Sequence to fold (491 residues):
Amino acid sequence: MKTDLLIVGGDGDLALRKLYPSLYYLELNNCMPENIRIIGMARTGQTQEVFHDKIKTWLKKGIDAEFYSEEMWETFSSKIQFVQGDASNAEALAKARDQFYDANNQLIVYLAIPPMIFGKACKSLEECGMVQDSTRLIVEKPLGDSRESFLAINEELSSTFTERQLFRIDHYLGKETVQNLLALRFANDIFEPLWNSKYIDHIQIAVTETVGVGNRWAFYNETGATRDMMQNHLIQVLCLMAMEPPAKLEADAVRQEKLKVLNCLRLIPEDEVEELTVRGQYARGKVGGQEVPGYLEEESEKYEIDPNSQTETYVAVKAEIQNYRWSGVPIYMRTGKRLNTRHSEIVIQFKQSSHTIFDQNHRDHKANRLIIRLQPDEGMRLRVMNKVSGLDAGIPLEAGCLNMWFADHNPKPKHDAYTRLLLDVIRDDQTLFVSAAEVEAAWKWVDQIFAGWKSTGMKAEQYPAGSTGPSSSDALMAKDGREWHETQDRE
Ligand code: BG6
Fold:
């Protein structure tokens, strides 16, 4: 069967910055289905040539220069067709449909448009007779800003498409190292016996960024770090780290195990929100030696900056999964913009035995720690204790590391997160996509934090751009006698 990939919002930001470059990688990897047609649909009329030029310009910015070749571009672009049309209007869509639609082909629709028009687009597709049992629909966040708004969006989607037809993208699940979590946990039997509250002291999940919100201010001000990052990316990483082994590496099994984790996430009571969460907002500072404005000083071309905005550009939470495996293990998660480094990692801090045979005077005995680096410098590092070499009496100890940096063993990847996810839609594999129940459960947990912030009037604490975040974030750890793991590149 031939495949048609229809990108609605085909000349928008998401399509140009992410989707076409990822699809180019499919071509480069020889994974593009034969006879595929990529149809970019946009409301603004333009010639095929202008459309291609636009894609080419963004493609060159979006992919590694060494992977670009004119020959590959020619092959790739010959599959891309421009169609003028408005999917939110059935009449307009019907006109566009006649230029490309073939009911015998497998249709995949990517709604690269704002979620408030998802519903209209679904209705139009249906009214135009473009929805069959085999049709697949791809959407991505923001899927609402609360459980309630998510349910409303989902109802619109599911009045036309079944759950089996819906592919909800969380691009973190397309990252190699996030998938590698499954390999680490379930293909290395030494970890499983240790992966629980008996042996693990605490877990940290961090996604820190150096970028600010720039000209996304208006969108971001309605969203904030909790909805933009924690509700989806961090929570998904948490689920893969914490879930029970699925019976099989299949969509239903994996998604159900993730859902069980979400359902065991303790909802943070409103009166504990000040103790268990941190809400921060960046102030003016220096990132990488460059002066950068504070969140409330960002220049926004289109919107007025609200000088009283309490939108958080940083959030940290002490969470707990209340189940047999994890109860009692604090899970500290944090994410923020305009911090000192860009890195994403999971830190598994093991417990230390209460008895030591080593001489107290020569003791630098630290508990083992596994660091799973998601980006950049993907890889793993295990802290182990060694004897200090030499003739000193006894067995003095020092910490050493077992390192496995993926770049040292693997060729440079010729793809990105979206490439993998788009290919999985083509393969009809939902394993790396998020189910409605997962999204709903994640919102339920996040809604509770917002309710607590509202009822307690907890304000966002300013932190200087280029720092490690608000001081209350360090205090969150310090009061438990712990500290955040601060990473250096390949430290
Ligand atoms: C997006 C957020 O989902 O993820 C952005 O909307 C954020 O605010 C981005 O910058 C981070 O993704 P990555 O892949 O660069 O870690």
Q: What stands out?
A: The radius of gyration is 24 Å. The chain has a mean pLDDT of 95. The chain has two domains: 3-140, 173-413+435-478. Residues 173-413+435-478 form a domain with the Dihydrodipicolinate Reductase; domain 2 fold (CATH 3.30.360.10).
